[in-house]
Amino acid sequence: MTFIMKRLLLCAALVFFAFACGKDETGSRSQGGGEGDLTNYTVQKAAPDEWDGVKRSATTYQLLVYSFADSDGDGMGDFRGIMQKLDYIESLGATALWLSPIHPADSYHGYDVIDYTAVNPAYGTMADFEALVAAAHERGIRIYLDYVLNHTGKSHPWFLNAVKSTDSEYRDYYIFSLDPQADVKAGRIPMLTDRAYNSGEWFDVPTSEEGVASRRLKFSLAWGSRPTVTVTESDTVDAPNPDTSTANAKYLYFGDGECLKFYDKGDSKYELNVDFRSSWGFLVRTSTTTWDGGTKFGAPASAGKLALGIPFVLTSDGADNVVPDWIEVWKFHSNFYTEYMPDVNYGAIASFRESPTYKAMVESAKGWIDRGVDGFRLDAVRHIYHDTASSENPTFLNGFYTDLNAYFKQSHPDRELYMVGEVFAEADEVAPYYAGLPALFEFSFWNRLSWAINNATGCYFVKDILSYQQLYARYRADYIEPTKLSNHDEERTRTVLGTTLDKAKSAAAVLLTAAGEPYVYYGEELGYVGSKSRGDEYVRNPMKWDDSFTTKFMDKQDSGMMSVYDVTRQSGDDASILNVYRQFGRLRHTYPSMASGAMLRHDVYNETNTEFKQIAAWYRESDGERMLVLHNLSGTQTVLTLDDDIDKCVAVMNKVDRRVRDGVTNVRMSGYSSVVFKLK
Q1: Which candidate, 147, 146, 175, places its Cα nearest to that of 62?
Q2: Catalytic residue IDs
Q3: Among residues 445, 452, 447, which one has the least CA distance to residue 672?
């Protein structure tokens, strides 16, 4: 039958069913052609070709080492635990592992690294890590490390040495300034070329009070709606204030935690004579038991230094330290608004390769390549240089990737180093970063998909995804498209979808049948729930194994986690979400078109067909192999009329029926169902 004849028959069928079958057995409006006629349908059973063992799909499994699998019973996940669960990981179709930061760090999550060359001893030894890499490689699973380029931990030896002296050999590893506001606005800090000063990004360099000279000073407060402090020289030092009452009390806080109560002179005036020694300045407090509720008074964000004899206005709104003009206070920069993650300094973009920090970061990464690592996930790459919209970050990333890839190919001449960056933004902001890296997470994929499922509107999904691919291709012809649902920094997928398990299954089916190289965050395949609104820990729960490998390190969890079944129980349930991931993961390996084929818009069920807006439909094609993918993203049964020449069903989720009558194919899809047909 010719294409034109098929199209005419399809149109005629749609018209016929719209009028002749407008009512179903319950008398309600039918969702599509043929729903009212229940005869001659055949339940679709998946009958894929036998998998030949070739791993065609690039699918990455993301796990947090501390929460995944505990091999020694100490409650903490470790490298040996991951080794013991590699068969499980492989059963999901994974061909790579993204490990959360494995380096020693200041905090549990590992993103404040204190040694880029070592492993966190809580996870095991370097020998344990190398054994994991070897075991993974035996199964054809690659290892990607989380690598943090834009900051270190506050306890990193580089930083500890850098803050000791302006002459430190590590001083240029970080960004320091005596007057950040002036330096930023004058363009004297190469990493901040956008000249956007934000006081919340600058923190006092930690110093010791040792060696700081003391001065006898008188502090005079005039309290009111605009409180002021005036500091003058003094010949005396007051004894500690014997008045222990706290009503209307004011306190001078300075030095190494000194907190002295002012003498109340009446009429809202307060005085205190002290032997003042402080390397950072002072604050005025109205409580000694809390810093909250406007009890801390200091310098306004735009204020300069305090001069003797000149009244200085205090504020409780974002109060900074009040710094007298005889004190020299260095500050360091942190783009994440925390003193615990000081930003590293790569200098001017034109010469970043010459910076000692860059050289050190590259050498550390080479060491991991030598240990068998196949790639890196780069954290927060648009926050390396401050101007996120400039070409600086892509330029830097291109250099970092090029240098490491050249080193990698010395030992792996047949392939490229894998490197994926995190730009936590929509596709239009992500796309320019493809000038720097071969792969960037597609956050827009999950943003569009979650909206589509929650609104039972799948008809626009393909159009959106294809438009993103066009954006990426402008910057890199051979772009890699890492698709994903949630990750360790986001609400769990099922939580975003209202905790509905069928919706979470639909999300998984879409992820694993769409184009791109999918990432699966551990626990998603079990239907985990969790909200970041209560803390990051709630989306980083222990993996449920139903054996001794279940970790105990992370004990905060959403109450809904109690109803999430473990791996053992779900493995025995063909309808479980775990087996949805396994079925579609295996399908990607079985068929080249599902692994790496093009994703093409369906001729009928697309953004123009809002009558069937709940349907997300597309083709996957590769070297003559053609698949039809259909997803019903609503909870309502839907009947579709197709003119596609179907060979057989190769994957199905929930109930899907099919019939062929008078040359026209009808597919009846239950709510939240998915099906993949191999076409002739």
Answers
A1: 146
A2: 379, 422
A3: 452
